[in-house]
Amino acid sequence: MRARAGISLFFFTNGLMMAGLLPRYPEIKASFDLSNTAFGLMVAISPLAAMLASALPAPLIRRFGAQAVSLGGTVVMALAVSLAGFAPVFTVFAIAIAIAGFTDSIVDAAQNVHGVAVEDAYRRTIINSLHALWSLGATLGGLIGAFAAAAHVPLGIHLSGVAAFTVLLAAVATWLGRLPAGTSAHLPDDQPAPPTKLPPGAWAAIVPLAVLAIAGALVEDIGFNWSAVYLVQTVGATAGVAGFGYTIMLAAQFVGRVLGDPATDRWGRVNVIRAGGILIAVGGVLVVAAPGLAAVMLGYALAGFGCATIIPAAYAAAGRLPGLPEGTGITLVSWLLRVGFLACSPIVGAVSDLTSLQVSLTLLILAGVAVIALAPVVRGRRPRATTA
Predict the structure, then answer these.
(1) Cα–Cα dist 259/278, whole Å
(2) The dihedral formed by the CA atoms of 228, 307, 98 and 151, expressed in degrees to the nearest 10
(3) CATH code assigned to 202-380
(4) Does the pLDDT of residue 188 top 60, yes or no?
């Protein structure tokens, strides 16, 4: 189906957009002379802005449709990322990444709404493959960023070039992703609001799922914001080589997401999550304790593979909590996840300034242990049957 190809390409472009910024973080940190704590606060700007935008996607999608919101938001993101690349002072850079994060939250919601609509029209589950393509796009973006850093391509030229290409791909994806006549990716105007008062015991089920999701997000955040800095500061890698840390983690996450559905069907969600926690913990040990570049890269790969299914599993379980209106469990877990994600990088930065960046990344090991302990919270919540 052409619509599936379109929405798949759109997820790919969304992953591609900002990932190229990450391998350039060491030089950005150095150019603005930021401490680890200040750097941690800097990378928290984007998720904070995303939280502020959380109320906007639904009314925008109702008014303009998911595809229009996705494409328009992508254009705004492209302009913001380009501005960040040419920012002469830190204030301008911070404003630019705040705009990008704010808009990315809207685009993320809109593309998922359209993805669900395409899935319904396709009559087969495809949402996991869409998120895998996001990981693939981010992997490519990270590779481009790493090569650009190694070749000393000016940051503004690199980011604006990728942004322009992404907008072009997004326009093609929007055209391909049109749904057949009679289907729609608008949200209904009468969609019920989440209840102001939850039934007894709801928070006891929601909070463990949110903590599980936060543990998975911590792995992503360390890879996203700290892998390149750690490789430069602690391992002694060059800027070009350091950019491959997050790329390797993303590539492993992509493989894990592709394999996640059949693995869950065969061994069960709890066993898959536990195995993921073990891989995260082992990866964390390699990152902080094993000497040499190869061991650290292997650690990133194991952690990325291990975290692949954690957040989707938490969302799936939250969406099937008994006694809650449709969407309420996912909404609440998503809010708590964003709060936790917002705190991750400032915590890593503060701990590293008090001790060292190597010590602060032992949080990877703790995240793996937390995942192993919390895996049973997804037990008994099986995915719905799908039609072929």
Answers:
(1) 17
(2) 30
(3) 1.20.1250.20
(4) no
Please name which of 271, 249, 250, 246 lies closest in space to residue 260, comparing C-alpha atoms.
Answer: 271
Asked if 1-180 and 202-380 have one fold, the answer is: yes
Residue-wise pLDDT for 325-361, tens only, equals 655 676 677 778 878 878 888 888 889 889 999 999 9
Residue 189 burial (CB count, 10 A)? 8
Which pLDDT value is given to residue 387?
A: 37
Q: How far apart are the first and last CA of the chain?
A: 14
CA distance 284 to 153: 32
Q: 1-180, which class in CATH?
A: mainly alpha
d(CA 207, CA 318): 10
Closest CA to 36 of 46, 21, 25: 25
Contact between 10 and 134 (Cβ < 8 Å): no
41 CB neighbour count, 10 Å cutoff: 17
DSSP secondary structure of 315-326: HHHHHT-TTS-T
pLDDT, position 183: 60
| Residue 197, CA distances (Å) to 138, 194, 286, 325, 343 in order | 39, 9, 45, 12, 27
Residue 253 has pLDDT above 70, yes or no: yes
> What is the mean pLDDT of the segment spanning 3-29?
88
Reported as a single tens digit per residue, the pLDDT across 275-321 is 999 999 999 999 999 778 999 999 999 999 999 989 878 877 876 78
| Domains of the chain by residue range | 1-180, 202-380
Radius of gyration of the chain (CA): 20
Report the candidate in 131, 125, 130, 128 with the shortest Cα–Cα distance to residue 386.
Answer: 125
What SS3 class is residue 99? Answer: helix
